[in-house]
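quick one if you have a minute, typing this from the bus. below you get a single protein, a line of residues and a line of whole numbers that encode the local backbone shape. could you go over both lines and see whether the tokens make sense for that sequence. anything you notice is useful, everything is just below.
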Amino acid sequence: MSIEEIRRLITAHAHKENLGLPGVRINRITDPTKPTPSIAEPILAFSMQGAKRIALADRVYDQVPGTFMTVAVDLPITGDYVRASRAEPYLGFALELRSSSIAELLVEAASGLPGILKPPPPGISINPATSEMLVAVARLLALIERPVDAPVLAPLLEREILWRVLSGPAGPTVRQIGLRDSSLTYIGRAIRHLRSNAFEPIQVEELAQLSGMGISSFHKQFRAVTAMSPIQYQKRIRLQEARLQLFKRPHDIAAVAHSVGYSSASQFSREYRREFGVAPSVDALRMRQEGEATA
């Protein structure tokens, strides 16, 4: 019954910009989408109806109803909704993963939780949602219709959802987000630095030092979490930003390439084609045409 109530609540309120529940997102998608690059930030994402596919480098994750995806660090992904229609839309619920909320639960729990993983776990995982999780999600979303109760009850229900996740198969991964000295936290520190300085030259030695690791260990653990090397990660960030800029200024490819850290327009074009399957000029024109068609 919980999943049916969740579907009802998402359908009724997905159009709202403000749900009155900080950190909570819902979405309703009525048509399949093309693979689209984006940056996934730490989150729990539950699928309630339909299906979506997430690609992280050479790893592909298919998410179906009754499962939740855990994203542990900022990751450059490509995602598309593969099963969505007007008759049966894709319906999803997401809860931001805040390290402070997780840390509070870990302090209170002290023991009795699954141990952390070494080496660090993959940055994305998918697990079945338990009935207890779904009940808590339904109660949390029901607060959209009872805004007077939300300030008091929403934090309690968020904690319950986090506790259910921490107590299950995804627990070791989520637990690392709340620990200051976990390997995932150290890799996350390097990732945040990479994102903040994505358009500048980077030194892997500097990232390794920032993570408190030797270069060899850092490379190994970074790839375990992100499925790519630090240089590949930076390249994905640059190319995703370039694609966004090309939508706004499709005839200025050299300037876009320079703005995201490329000194050579020809190298930018080669790497863009390798990443997105088409030359930047062709992709920019197509995006503009699609944008005008849907305007």
